[in-house]
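Page 42, continued from yesterday. The earlier attempt failed because a stray header line got pasted into the input along with the sequence. Redoing it now with the clean sequence only.
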Amino acid sequence: MVGRIWEIAVDPGSAGEFEAFSGEWALPMVRGRMGCSAVHVFRDADSPGRYVWIALWLSRKALAVAAASAEWEEARRRFA
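This time it went through. Structure tokens are written below.
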């Protein structure tokens, strides 16, 4: 099992938009990748706009294959 942690900070005024994008597109895309065991999302209650995603993968190879996919690149582009 391999864990990957992403720390994400967005403008607090855009938090709702970010959460909608995450729930409708980004999280299902990550969860749907072969080898992804689970994704957990945490929101900092004391600091609006700060999030942590923890993704668990069956192997480093599974994570590397997912990270090299066109969908993953699209997620990077949309997050930017």
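Notes: The mean pLDDT is 90.
Reminder to self: strip header lines before submitting.
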